[in-house]
Automatic annotation (TrEMBL):
This is Ribonuclease P protein subunit p29. GO terms for cellular component: nucleolus; ribonuclease MRP complex; ribonuclease P complex. Its main location: nucleus. Belongs to the eukaryotic/archaeal RNase P protein component 1 family. It comes from the Eukaryota. The lineage of its organism: Eukaryota, Metazoa, Chordata, Craniata, Vertebrata. Transmembrane segments: none annotated. It is found in: Nucleus, Nucleolus. Keywords: Nucleus, Phosphoprotein, tRNA processing.
Length: 200
């Protein structure tokens, strides 16, 4: 009958359109089966490459003087509120610095803590001129501390060959700079050994 031939033509055309990669003989072979599984060929989507946001290079940062503190800002009194914030931060970090707290637990937390705002003193040094320098840490880099003293002088003190002490609520901690040659961000993820050789 005409209707069946028309139906075959429609189905053949549909299969041809649905499966463009198949030959006519293969389509006719599929029509003889009871069930026809249609294949799907999705269009390939072109992935757009994301542009990475590039930061400043070390040279550009130096040229722009991003990390330099202006002379008019180099005053001890300006940074005293920063020290108060640091003290509260350490108390929260160490759960109040209670008298019964274990010293090694506090020490391990201080090793990973942010020291910006801490008042430190150089207690030992291979260079005698550094001994006795006391002030608030304004900037910590991999190899140096930038410290503002009570005399409103900005001191650049190397970590290497220096021992620093910091005191908070009667707890005194010592920092051996030679074992501390890390950026603040790297320190927070580093595992420090509790025992080891201590030397300047």
């Amino acid at each position: 009958p005409q209707s069946s031939e028309k139906a075959k033509t429609i189905v053949h055309a549909f299969l041809k359109r649905s499966m463009p990669k198949m030959k006519d003989e293969a389509i006719q072979d599929m029509l003889t089966r009871k069930a026809v599984v249609l294949e799907h060929y999705p269009k390939k989507k072109t992935k757009q490459k994301r542009k990475k946001t590039k930061g400043f290079t070390a040279k550009q940062r130096r040229e722009l003087r991003l990390f330099e503190i202006e002379p008019e800002q180099q005053r001890y009194a300006i940074f005293l509120p920063l020290h108060e914030l640091w003290k509260q931060y350490i108390r929260d970090l160490c759960h109040g610095l209670k008298p019964d707290a274990q010293p090694h637990m506090i020490q391990s937390k201080l090793l990973k803590a942010d020291l910006h705002g801490a008042i430190v003193t150089v207690t030992k040094s291979k260079c005698p001129s550094y001994v006795g320098i006391t002030g608030i840490i304004l900037q910590e880099f991999k190899h140096i501390f930038k410290i503002i003293t009570k005399e409103d002088k900005l001191k650049v003190v190397p970590k290497l060959n220096n021992v620093f002490s910091l005191e908070l609520d009667g707890f005194i901690s010592y920092i051996y700079g030679s074992k501390f040659l890390l950026r603040a961000s790297e320190r927070s993820a580093k595992k420090f050994k509790l025992k080891g050789t201590i030397d300047l």
